[in-house]
Amino acid sequence: MTEITHRTASGVKFYQVGSLAVGNRLLPREQRAAQADPQRANTMISGHRACQGCGEVLGARYVLDAAMRATEGKLVVVNATGCLEVVSTPFPESAWRVPWLHSLFGNAPAVASGVAAALKAQGHEEIRVLGQAGDGGTVDIGMGVLSGMCERNDDVLFVCYDNEAYMNTGVQRSGATPAAARTATTPVAPGHPGNRFGQGKDVPAIAMAHRIPYVATASVADLRDLEAKVERAMQFTGARYLHVLVPCPLGWAAPSSQTIRLARLATQCGLFPLFEAEHGELVSVTPIRQQVPVDEYLRAQGRFAHLFADQAAGGRPDLVARIQAEADRNIRVYGLGGQP
Amino acid sequence: MAATELSPHRGAAPEPAGRAVEGSRAVAETVARCRPQVVPAYPISPQTHIVEALSALTRTGELESCQFVNVESEFGAMSLCIGASAAGSRTYTATSSQGLLFMSEALFNAAGLGLPIVLTVANRAVGAPINIWNDQSDSFSQRDSGWIQLYARDNQDACDLHPLAFRLAEELSVPVMVCMDGFVLTHAVERIAVPEQRIVDAFLPPYAPRQVLDPGAPLSIGAMVGPEAFTEVRFIAHGRMQQALVRFPELAQRYGKLVGRPAVELARGYRLEGARTVFVALGSVLGTLEDVVDEARADGMPVGAVELTCFRPFPAERLRTLLAGAENVVVIERAFSTGAAGIVTPELIAALAEPPAVSARSFTVIAGLGGRPITKKALRMLVHDAVAGRVARFSFLGLDRDLLARAGYGRASDDPPGSTAERLLSRLRAPESPR
Amino acid sequence: MSAHPFATTLDPGSSRANHTGAWRVERPVYAHGLPPCAAACPAGEAVRDWLYTAEDGSYETAWRRLMRDNPLPAVMGRVCYHPCETACNRGQLDQVVGINAVERFLGDEAIRRGWTVPRGAEPTGRRVLVVGSGPAGLSAAYQLALRGHAVTVREAAAKLGGMLRYGIPRYRLPREVLDAEIARIAALGVRFETQSCVDDLDAALREGGFDAAFLGVGAQAGKNAYVPAGDSAHVLDALTVLAAAEDRWPLRLGRRVAIYGGGNTAMDAARTARRLGATDAVVVYRRTRERMPAHESELEEALAEGVSVRWLSTIAHADRGLIAVERMELDESGFPQPTGRFETLEADTLVLALGQSADLGWLAGAAGVGVGDGVIDVDADLATGRPGVYAGGDAVAGPERTATGAIGQGAAAARRIDRYLSAVAGEQRDVPRQQPSAETPVPFGRLNTWYYSDAPAMLRPQLDAARRVDTFAEVVQGLTEHNALYEARRCLSCGNCFGCDNCYGVCPDNAITKLGFDADGQPRYAIDLEYCKGCGLCAAECPAAAIEMVPEPARDEPADRTEHRDAALQDVGP
């Protein structure tokens, strides 16, 4: 059994914000976040048409800039259809500054595999391939080809930017939509408090079941953790999977300024555990730093508002308790409350 | 097996050199000599022998520097092709039937992105009912996918079309489908001359992509295009595909010289001199058809045949020229559009109607669905009926009316006068048939 | 026409043609909030600023920033009751930042390394008299000297420092520290005259040719409270005890000493008595611990040194060796009321520590300078009724008489005197101080404290209490450099950017540019309003509440937008 370690900010010289903030003027350059670098890649640049406060474009820039740093700029990106694609490349303008290919909604992992195969055939294995999709393109429609990519151990880092529903088409339920969330296809009605319980798909666990070299979860609220995981992922050859939580102000019905806070609350309440697995085995978890009840996370989002209306109007403390139990389970199973 | 009824000859072509080999194997060897760099593969009958052979050729090193990837679906296979092609590699795969339909979304995408992928379709019926045998419903269903479609009359043709397909695809940035009748060709062992490596190398230069995913010169490929430019994108794609009508004959001539065989044509006439009734067909039926035409000619009937090799782009001018003297044009189709009629016929009619109009009457005969053999006998009857003016505008060749009757869809003796199809249709329009 | 396929392939980064700034309804603005520490500092120190500077080890720069407001950091780093720390927002997170300890570290570092302050301004030829060399006088003299004025400080006592020397025992403030910081002021050209009592202001001004004066005479007369005492009772004033210890007069205290009072001076007197040989030092205080005016730390240190306290007690009568103590009870309003129950306390000496007042009789004849209620009358500008004569420190009424407040008043008066002298000379030479933009200190709730590392405060090492009672060696030790740096870095930088790059990092629209640091070492960023969509993430994720979202002003004509493209880059920074 591989020993599970805890990823923390240790090793960073104490300075007000340690490694919690993006930058730190006192750290040696190589220890700074890629995002703090004035010369960062800016893989995705201004002028894209994402909504205010979009977590997905932020997550994409975080991931890709880190990947660009890790690969010294030798990166090719394959993108599934979805918000990230639509907002970034409406003719005649592209926000990307990497070689970037968009094919279809459900085939990004396979297209990425094809790019990797071509680069291998050409003897250009130093150029690394990154596939990316939203949760719809990963968890649902792209699942088969993603599994194929993992099973073949193709040399691709596939990144899922999970905003927990089909946002591009107007907030419909996906296989990643959490229980009790209101979406356009899980509307709140008497006897129907949003999305059903007990559904949804744990894709990181599915990826782990393929015993691929590296699987990790990350969030836009934990930049250094995210960047470290991208760096780590790039140290492996073969199939790698990174699942990044990216709140969506529109779909989650929250102010645009709350995107990062919501991602933070998601990890700090235990609903979204941050971990790493190598060759199918859990090797590290990022412990909860300031635990909060799920209540605090849920209340901040309009998609869960029906859980907190007064009882007469259908407020559901029982469902909040079930969600809390889910968080508690994560904390127990992943050891998120453990000491570093 | 129907293959025994097929002529291995292309009209007046000389006996091919080469060796006795299965069609699929010969195609695989030819493809290997085209030096593809990425071959994703997914099994489906009757295509499997092609990718099996390519897998072996890759493992033995006969096909060098090629990534043969066993994928999880045809959708995945075509998607890998898209990625590999966009990354600048020559890319190939093969499929059939349901597999082609499972690829469909990616087919349109590959074409829209202008990726010069070459795909062999071992033509097979599309279910339900599930049926593994040959017809051409699968590739015809992808008529509008933006791919060039070439139909092989025999296995020599199937081989020779592949170097041409790669060359054409890469020149025009349009993907090409090479269609060969499943089992009839893929599993037939015949004498086939697989083009030699030096000839293919001389004909087919290394792939020089017009754009590539290059970290040194990043591009965004696959943009979203709205109403402001979508029509123009399609207009340009149409123009590019139309160039194949010019380039295909030129390339085929060159290739034909290199291999010492007559050039493949967009569409080719057979005994058209003085032919008043001309039969138009695609694929493996041509051999038998030409034999029947020879017989009919010997009997003094003014008949001829046209082999349509290139269905997309549609060689309207070429067909007008070939059919200029015809009074009756009978199109033998191995697929049909349920609820309408033939798929090739309406396009042919439209082509002939271009001024100066060719005033031939047209007939559609649906034949060989789901692997039903198109026998010489059936074709002979068709020729006689056509010359005698007994062919309906739309009919099914060899429709088993007894079978229908046993199934409760009317008895043969009850059939009203008229063509088989019309009789059937009138029967079907009646209230629910007794079982 | 580009070489690549039309429309489906696009050039990299071409989205910059799309100016998403037009979506904005709110825009972020970099703010300079008032940190609670600075708001609370009676000396007006820009605490956040010098902590920020110290954080990267630029101690000398930090010290110089500190020295703009306070010439005695090594002294104040020891004796200040640090209201800055009381106000510090970090206290609501874990423990307050040890600002005072860092100040002391910087002050000590300056002494150790011999850092000096250059004479800034050209000599003005103006002469200013400062009466008293306590913290108010020293502060005023320093600020006036920096502005080029010729300053003479007249001190009645034998040594400089006023209450810093005679009211604060050396175990709290070693004299070499005080001397060093005064010497640095002297090095600016300030002339100090000791044993030079001013008893006639008019004469002093006239004879010295002074253009202005600052009166910082302090409050050094022990307040008399009537304590019935027998002839043989040995009663001393607390300041006398402290002064005797300072100047090493022989003083007979005896073995048992009672100290009457509950202020810091009472604590100092008790602790000094212990050091002078008393085995028992008992503080008699009429109310409870909660209501004691002495600072908690002073009491704690006294108790640790063996001082005891009799709460709810007044002294009814003192006689040779014996003191009668009456027990008190607090009434409903918290005021102590006699109970009629008496106890006896053995005490060889009774030390009265009941507060001090200013001795202002000498001002009776000074024209225009009013005195009332035991303090000099001044207006809000610290001006007396006489033009050019200002006063500050304990000699004027104030909310709390502390050395820190005295330094603030001395500096404030110096600025007014400078302005007065300029006005007289027909010049405008007062340089306005940099003022924080907000009046209300940044509240804790506006900070995004997630980003601050968990970091408990360093405790200043203390001498072993058992060992220190028989020595006047300094009780509280300074921080090591490592600890001082750590402590400085605990600062939350409330309301002010400290260059964490969060805004730069979290902007989904890459609308923020890093511009590095300005000449003062402060971080600079620019917001590109061509692309900022006004999502507010930068403001929400700013740890220090240094970004505010403000409503978007009415939009200019689109044509102006490109015209003023450079102006759209909102350059920011302190």
Automatic annotation (TrEMBL), chain A:
InterPro entries named among the record's database cross-references: PorB-like, THDP-binding, TPP_enzyme_TPP-bd
Entry keyword set: Oxidoreductase
Pfam families, alphabetized: TPP_enzyme_C
Gene3D superfamilies membership: 3.40.50.970
Superkingdom as given in the UniProt entry: Bacteria
Residue stretches making up the Thiamine pyrophosphate enzyme TPP-binding domain: 81-244
The keyword Lipoprotein is annotated on this UniProt entry: no
One Gene Ontology term of the molecular function aspect: magnesium ion binding
PANTHER family documented for this protein: PYRUVATE SYNTHASE SUBUNIT PORB
Name of the protein: Thiamine pyrophosphate enzyme TPP-binding domain-containing protein
Organism: Actinocrinis puniceicyclus
UniProtKB/TrEMBL annotation, chain B:
Domain Pyruvate flavodoxin/ferredoxin oxidoreductase pyrimidine binding, first and last residues per copy: 32-246
Family per similarity comment: Belongs to the pyruvate:ferredoxin/flavodoxin oxidoreductase family.
Keyword entries, A-Z: Oxidoreductase
Cross-referenced Gene3D superfamilies: 3.40.50.920, 3.40.50.970
TM region positions: none
Gene Ontology MF term list: magnesium ion binding; oxidoreductase activity
Pfam families from the UniProt entry: PFOR_II, POR_N
UniProt name for this protein: Pyruvate ferredoxin oxidoreductase
Domain of life: Bacteria
Gene Ontology biological process terms from the UniProt entry: response to oxidative stress
Domain Pyruvate:ferredoxin oxidoreductase core: 275-377
Taxonomy of the source species: Bacteria, Bacillati, Actinomycetota, Actinomycetes, Catenulisporales
Region (Disordered): 1-21, 410-435
InterPro entries attached to this UniProt entry: PFOR_II, Pyruvate:ferred/Flavod_OxRd, Pyrv_Fd/Flavodoxin_OxRdtase_N, THDP-binding, Transketo_C/PFOR_II
TrEMBL record, chain C:
PROSITE patterns named among the record's database cross-references: 4FE4S_FER_1 (PS00198), 4FE4S_FER_2 (PS51379)
UniProt entry keywords in alphabetical sequence: Iron, Iron-sulfur, Metal-binding
Disordered as annotated region, ranges: 553-574
GO MF annotation: an example: iron-sulfur cluster binding
Source organism (scientific name): Actinocrinis puniceicyclus
SUPFAM superfamilies referenced in this protein's UniProt entry, alphabetically: 4Fe-4S ferredoxins (SSF54862), alpha-helical ferredoxin (SSF46548), Nucleotide-binding domain (SSF51971)
InterPro entries with a match to the protein in the record: 4Fe4S_Fe-S-bd, 4Fe4S_Fe_S_CS, DPD_II, FAD/NAD-bd_sf, FAD/NAD-binding_dom, Helical_ferredxn
Domain 4Fe-4S ferredoxin-type per the UniProt entry, residue ranges: 488-517, 523-552
Protein name: NAD(P)-binding protein
Family matches, as Pfam families: Fer4_20, Fer4_7, Pyr_redox_2
Record's compositionally biased regions (Basic and acidic residues): 553-568
Lineage: superkingdom: Bacteria
